[in-house]
Amino acid sequence: MKISHIIAIVVIAAAIGIIIATAGDASTYVNFDQAYQMASSGNSTQIHVVGELKKDAAGHVVGLEPGADKLSFSFVLVDDNKKEQTVYYNEPMPADFLRSEKVVVIGGYQNDQFVAKKILLKCPSKYQDQKLVTR
């Protein structure tokens, strides 16, 4: 066998290994009930939960509490099954957090509280069509 064939086989094997390693880390969105069941069964992987911030009738976010250190905060997130859950985030509030349409929290349960390691936002202002005014 030629050396070029051996190198090609090694490169292909490495590519397959990388694909398998990254596919094992992929996660799907779950609701809070599923996330709690996963945590209760000993699953320690990062869990992705998607939801909306809890708002009052006027559209203002409710349930937002600053942490004792004034950097962290907690908030109430409502998942797709309308279950409300307090989420704790040990980092400063992301920009445009209060304006976001959907929020994805990545983390896991610690006791009965969901602790987010990362927050992803979908802000509606970035995706809405802007009409140009012509004069």
Structure notes:
This protein is α+β, with helices and mostly antiparallel strands and 135 residues long. The protein has a single domain (28-127), classed as Beta Barrel (OB fold (Dihydrolipoamide Acetyltransferase, E2P)), CATH 2.40.50. It has helices at residues 3-23, 32-40, 124-127, and strands at 29-30, 47-53, 65-66, 73-79, 84-89, 102-110, 113-122. Strands 2-4-5-7-6 form a five-stranded mixed beta barrel. The protein is elongated. The model has no long low-confidence stretch (mean pLDDT 84).
Brief account:
The chain has about 140 residues and is α+β, with helices and mostly antiparallel strands.
| CATH architecture label | Beta Barrel
Mind telling me the C-alpha Rg?
Answer: 21 Å
Main sheet attributes: strand count, strand direction, barrel closure: 5 strands, mixed, barrel
The CATH superfamily title? Nucleic acid-binding proteins
Distance between the termini: 73 Å
Q: Estimate nothing, just give the exact number of structural domains.
A: 1
Outline the secondary-structure elements.
Layout: H1 3-23, E1 29-30, H2 32-40, E2 47-53, E3 65-66, E4 73-79, E5 84-89, E6 102-110, E7 113-122, H3 124-127
Parallel strand pairs: 1-2, 5-7
Antiparallel strand pairs: 2-4, 2-6, 3-4, 4-5, 6-7
Question: Which properties best describe this structure?
Answer:
single chain; 135 residues; alpha+beta; OB fold (Dihydrolipoamide Acetyltransferase, E2P); five-stranded mixed barrel; 3 helices; elongated
